[in-house]
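Dear colleague,

Following up on Tuesday's group meeting, I ran the structure prediction for the two-component complex that the binding team flagged. I've pasted the input sequences exactly as they went in, so you can double-check that nothing got truncated or mislabelled along the way. The structure tokens for the whole assembly follow below. Feel free to forward this to whoever is handling the docking comparison.

Inputs:
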Amino acid sequence: MRAAQVGVALAFALASQTTLVPRMTGVATVDLVLVVVLSVAMRQGAVAGLWTGTVGGLLQDALSGGVVGVGGLAKTLVGYFVGRFASQFDVDRLWQQVMVFFFGSLLHAGVFVGVYSLLSETAMLSSYMAALTQGGANTAIGVGAGLALAAVPSVEERQRRRKRRLERRFGRRAH
Amino acid sequence: MAVACHVLLISLQVNTASGVRVFEGVTFGLFAEVQRLVSGSVEQLSDLWEGYVGLVEVQAENDALRREVSELQLEVQQERALAQRARGLEELLDMRREVNFSTVGARVIAGDATPYFRTVTIDRGISDGVRHDSAVVSPEGVVGRVVRDPGPRAARVQLLIDRNAAAGALVERNRVAGLVAGEEDGTLSMEYVSNLDDVEVGDAVVTSGIDGIYPKGFVIGTVALVERGSGLYKTIQVEPAVEFADLEDVLVIVREPTPVGTSAGGG
């Protein structure tokens, strides 16, 4: 994924998080920006994960009711550590991706709640169940979106196929 | 990249004339327009999808009359939706006439960007008279207040059920005072009510006006649970009067109440 693609993915995640997710009661706990950060970190490594986490987290903070910087810090750390983990270990298989999304989400919840507990007395997550539910929702959407994207051929692949089809039909004219 | 980082860092620290950080102001202003666009598109797509599902169901019921019945059902649904919308707006209008405040009607265009907070974005901002701490109400009761400085055409509203929200409150029956605060599960708790006070399940809870944000006498909800607390105060759970999940149209109070006997100004 290039920087522009990551930017589009983050913008789409933010727009969906603020307009679509509140309408869907069942997935109200999902964090789509975190899903993008984890996906980028897994595929492109620590540095890309760190930057995606920083930009995505800060934008999310600016659009939410919380302290600006807390979400950015949490997503930066998660992006970096998940990227480091993915560069050290194999995360290509489905169950491995499930584990990364789930525990990445738990790590994010831990950092986010931890920083807020230092800043205020208000409890951010009243139960472990809330963190687990959020982890499950993020995992389902992250892995599902990954599978769906893998099933769709890339632009380059589509162009190659089209070129091959045209060549079969009309033969090679150039050269 | 390095220049962008520096601009980002600077904008995080520099405040605009109104006191809000440049980064927050620019991000919120720009994204509010995106949210307005996406919200409109989603509503149109939602209407289209519901209509299609309606047609499929009718087709299964009766092949012969499929087209006619489905079209009629679709029309009825559309009329019903229009009627509901009109009723909601009428209620808002009636309330606006009754209330001695200057208000502006607003539409909810987006929710919070994180799952941790309960805020919404409305399509009215500074240019409509909305200010930081403006109270937001609906025909059912108190919705919340405007947090941070609003943008020119949009503002962020902290719902009363947010974990950081609170309002001065009274039990309507006997004027017992307390503080209503948001809980994580979307309910409200009423705090600082003495164990000696008389509060019963079903009692209406209204704003006391003591916080200087919410006007006095607006409905917050009804008492759903009362227990004797371990300390000095009761444990009271309040069921909100407003259905926050279905929030669409609200009123923002943009000016102090006018003196009794004068007409309320519109916005």
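DSSP finds three helices and twelve strands in chain B.

Cheers,
M.
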